[in-house]
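stage 2 :: seqdesign
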């Protein structure tokens, strides 16, 4: 493998996805691998606080893994000059297995000439008719590609000119696309297809470290590294991998891993939190040189401030997509110190959820409004899933809302009962 390994968390990344991918990419680097963290979406406020606190820059955003025409273009295929002779053109076709030849004028793409049209000129040399020139035979191609185009749009047959800003770059074919070395991708903090960056089928999953349910859709072409553990946070698992490798955790990385544990366990309040998460956090806090409780509360507060978010942004906050029982639904979550303000805007939030639900044809879109202080959740939703929600939580649904005391975890307390009720 010669390509750099990308380490990524899920779409709508949370602090665990951002920080565990940075920390695990760092571990791979410290072990001599060529690896880099990437991210699948925008950084939320809580994560921004953590990155800023420990002076770490966010990793680059990657929106999809589709092979691009620019990755596969054969740049060694020279274009014919517009001033070239018919003999030059004949030589070009003799040297290349293509029915069209690209023509360039000072490096700028001028069009193509067809092998058949050139052959006609040789018939004319026999009949004595006047010959055309390369310039006069040059015409716009039926199809050509830009370097940024997706490789899977290149037809199975034929070769095509590739252009970048008008400049001729080379030729491409479907076979060229198929031979591009796949991007190795290491997934952390997720494994369900709907949460993975688009185009993963054109990349190569080389490993998964996660603490979620196995979503069932993961399949790989070869054997891969897999580490799943039912702990509160992927960062807890990543921390254990540093210990296993005998590598000291750098101070800033310890700070990020600590932030992830605090975030996922809501400062150890979530029922997903295990003794291992707590021990790990204390150990990380010592390396990072911060007071875990005090830092944790400040970080959670930074993320809990939703006063400047629009209803649309709140409806999309930390959104994850799920499928089960023939239904597809999303669950977003906001964690706040006080739910009053959000519950006062419930009508607006439900219509924002409904807009999102309708535009993606989801069966339902949920929003968990979770109180860090009360350790409870008001679950509101759009879509006709009253019966499912009622069966899931054994409660009556009042006006698209159900109050769930002692519920903070989407993964442990919301997703399983809903999926069970859909069975
Ligand atoms: Mn996580």
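stage 2 :: out
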């Amino acid at each position: 493998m010669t390509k750099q390994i990308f380490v990524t968390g899920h779409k709508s990344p949370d602090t665990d996805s951002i920080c565990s991918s940075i920390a695990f990419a760092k571990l791979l680097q410290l072990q001599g691998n060529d690896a880099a963290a990437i991210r699948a979406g925008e950084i939320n406020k809580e994560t921004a606080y953590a990155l800023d606190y420990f002076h770490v820059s966010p990793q680059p955003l990657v929106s999809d893994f589709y092979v691009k025409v620019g990755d596969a273009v054969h740049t060694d295929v020279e274009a014919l000059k517009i001033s070239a002779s018919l003999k030059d053109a004949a030589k070009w076709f003799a040297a290349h297995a293509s029915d069209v030849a690209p023509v360039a004028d000072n490096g700028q793409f001028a069009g193509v000439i067809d092998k058949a049209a050139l052959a006609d000129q040789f018939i004319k040399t026999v009949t004595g008719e006047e010959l055309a020139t390369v310039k006069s035979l040059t015409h716009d191609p039926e199809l050509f590609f830009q370097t940024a185009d997706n490789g899977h749009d290149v037809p199975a047959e034929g070769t095509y000119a590739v252009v970048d800003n008008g400049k001729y770059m080379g030729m491409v074919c479907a076979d060229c696309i198929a031979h591009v070395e796949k991007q190795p991708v290491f997934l952390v903090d997720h494994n369900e297809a709907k949460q993975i960056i688009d185009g993963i089928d054109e990349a190569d999953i080389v490993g998964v470290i996660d603490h979620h349910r196995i979503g069932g859709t993961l399949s790989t072409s070869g054997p891969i590294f897999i580490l799943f553990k039912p702990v509160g946070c992927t960062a807890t698992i990543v921390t254990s991998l540093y210990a296993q490798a005998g590598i000291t955790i750098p101070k800033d990385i310890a700070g990020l891993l600590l932030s992830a544990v605090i975030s996922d366990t809501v400062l150890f309040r979530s029922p997903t939190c295990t003794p291992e998460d707590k021990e790990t956090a204390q150990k990380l806090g010592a390396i990072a040189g911060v007071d875990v409780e005090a830092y944790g509360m400040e970080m959670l507060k930074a993320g809990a401030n939703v006063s400047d978010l629009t209803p649309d942004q709140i409806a999309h906050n930390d959104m994850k997509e799920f499928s089960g029982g023939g239904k597809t639904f999303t669950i977003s979550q906001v964690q706040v110190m006080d739910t009053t303000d959000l519950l006062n805007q419930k009508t607006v939030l439900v219509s924002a959820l409904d807009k999102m639900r309708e535009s993606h044809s989801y069966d339902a879109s949920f929003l968990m409004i979770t109180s860090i202080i009360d350790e409870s959740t008001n679950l509101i939703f759009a879509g006709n899933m009253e019966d499912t929600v009622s069966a899931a939580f054994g409660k009556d649904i009042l006006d698209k809302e159900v109050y769930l005391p002692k519920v903070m975890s989407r993964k442990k307390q919301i997703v399983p009962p809903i999926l069970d009720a859909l069975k």
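stage 3 :: structure notes
- The first helix runs from residue 15 to 30.
- The chain has three domains: 5-65+183-304, 69-178, 311-422.
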